[in-house]
């Protein structure tokens, strides 16, 4: 194993009270934020129910203009997130979220319709007599071509225009990302002659935006997702408690689970403090945090178990300090490299990945800190409280009580 530090001799257990004080301060800060904001976290559409509309623009999205226009429609609380794809072709998208008001599918459809109407009012048609090609469907486009008959095929050319319409829409959606900005680009489509393109220019205009996707989540589904997210986290903690209790002792498992629970609470508190939304991707990040933090804790506990066989006459806190110092290089390498990766994701991943990467950044820092600052001191405190006659080892170390 690569050793960054040699002959490290840090008294981690002597600083345990500072670790606990820091954790209590962070927990109180998050708890105060949660209480001040109505005793609730800021849930995303996934959990509270509502409508998400993904809109792509031909240029830089006019977020502020769009926000003012949507607020003027009296739609209630609206969230806007700008998305920029930094890899490949430039894409400019905005995710518009509208919380559901009312009950039933009609309320959900009303939210979608209200957002679309607000978009149309904000970016009106330059020619009311024409349709927007970027919102056309294969069916409406085929009907238009059949009426105009630019290829002079006669009344029996319905199938031909159906195929042509599908190719034109496919080119728009696949090759141009759903947003065509120039009619001559359609010359790349097989069968799109000058007559066809001229007919399209006479009957259509190219809008500055297109709706890429619409997601609708009902309130019952959102409540169910919240419940399942909580259960998934609790099941993960319970499974890890059983595993560590079986591999080591139950007190090790309890300390590790308390440390991970501490990590999750601090992360959620920071989300509340900064006003970040809790979405399904954030729950995935939290579960990743649970596994990452637990893995680092197990590495330290495993070294403690090994040293219990080699240092039977040493006080337990000395054994734990030695174990943390021996694994310090491994902790810095793994945690440091992982932190650099998620930090880049947080800084350059764009708005859509911001909350996910933020949870990972905080989780790695807090999860690494809690392994030696919370879990290990809890085990030391337990055996110090129970007295020196308590067996803490496994295997040949069982029954050989270290001095506290």
The SSE string, one letter per element, is HHEHEEHEHHHEEHHHHHH
Strand ordering within the main sheet: 2-3-1-6
| Average of the residue pLDDT scores | 80
Radius of gyration: 30 Å
End-to-end distance, in Å?
A: 30 Å
Low-confidence stretches: 85-90, 389-404
Shape: elongated
The count of DSSP E runs of length 2 or more, i.e. the number of strands, is 6
Structure description:
The chain is of the alpha+beta class and 404 residues long. It has helices spanning 16-36, 45-48, 63-72, 104-122, 138-148, 158-175, 194-203, 219-247, 250-274, 280-310, 316-326, 328-348, 354-386; strands at residues 50-57, 78-84, 92-99, 131-132, 204-205, 209-217. Strand 2 (78-84) and strand 3 (92-99) form a beta hairpin. Helix 1 (16-36) crosses helix 9, helix 3 (63-72) packs across helix 4 (104-122) and helix 10 (280-310) crosses helix 11. The chain is elongated and about 100 Å long.
Which key phrases capture this entry?
404 residues; alpha+beta; four-stranded antiparallel sheet; two-stranded parallel sheet; 13 helices
Please summarize what this structure is:
With 404 residues, the protein is of the alpha+beta class.
Helix and strand arrangement:
Elements: H1 16-36, H2 45-48, E1 50-57, H3 63-72, E2 78-84, E3 92-99, H4 104-122, E4 131-132, H5 138-148, H6 158-175, H7 194-203, E5 204-205, E6 209-217, H8 219-247, H9 250-274, H10 280-310, H11 316-326, H12 328-348, H13 354-386
Parallel strand pairs: 4-5
Antiparallel strand pairs: 1-3, 1-6, 2-3
